[in-house]
Design brief:
The protein is of the alpha/beta class. Helices cover 41% and strands 14% of the residues.
Amino acid sequence: MSLAPKIELCSYHKLLGKAAVRPSLIIAGGYSAGHITPGIALSEAFSPQVNCIFMGARDGMEASLVVQAGLPFIGVHALPWAGRRASARAASLATLLPAILCARREIKKSGATALISLGSFAALAPSLAAVSLGLPVILYESNTTLGLAHRVLLPFAKTLLTSRLFHQALPRRPAPVTVGVPLRNDILALAHRSVEFPPGAVRVLVLGGSLGNPFFNRRMPDVMRRLALIHPGVSVIHQCGIAIDPTPIIRAYADVGVSASVETYRNPISTAFESIHLVVTTAGAITLHEIAAAGIPALIMPLEGAAARHQHDNAFTFTALTGCPHISEDTWDDEQVSGTLAGLLADPAAWQACSHRLRRFFSPDSASRTLQILRPFLLSPCSSETPSPAPSQ
């Protein structure tokens, strides 16, 4: 049974009569899970009344995650920009116009009436294609500030939707509308379960983001060794990154005598949240909201390689709203971090209070609120002809 609220579109079907077809929405994004999973959550919430079609980089992780979720996927050629050298940025720009032309053709075939961008370079070409076709473009920003793609797209956007982390002052309209973060059904289910302070053995979840955090991969085995001196029997689930070889990390945990399950990327991540008592994580916005839904206290460390250091802003804001501590890479000390984790486990009342604050931060109606705002765009006049099915790649 779906946990995401549904939006009725009966008026749309009455308007078009017997020849009515489901309205189509393009969801554009990719590169990392944070620019993909909110789109999957939206598709779960609006199914089966809206035909959601995901567009992103054909070689990105979105190609596999979206198809695994059962969504149609259209890939365009897109290359990263942020943090790249001049030659790589030139290649990224060279792919943009062909990608826009490709996206225009596919959007026209889909019969879509609107596009929502989740951000990253993978969303840029589909969004600009939608603008060129006269389709309304809605931006969804989960971080504290707009990323580069959304700064480019902001002048063309009809609406800007944001998470509770967002606090950037914008020089132009549209004004941001806070909706929270749409989360998948399996994560929403975690919000309905009771969370209790661990009575015995402690299990820690280490999340370096979908692309991984080399710093965590190097340092967490020693931190867990130190924590095990205080809490014997501690065990770890460590997500090291989708393209990372887990073998050296597995060996490092074994060398210090800590039981650890090291995985490149767990999908769905909810299966890990079901059995853990603490999280050590980077400050990706979607991950922070998933932790809040699960109600598990966490230590946050921003990923230094994140574009424009946006994860530092995410961590600072999340700490202010939930009380979960954060630490930077340049002030990291293994003994201090293990002590911080032990401190989170030292007081059952404080642990439970942190869990309650996290749950209050979580917005269970984010998908419903997002879809209410999208509804006028989805009800835009469109052809009654059945659109061509979107390809899976």
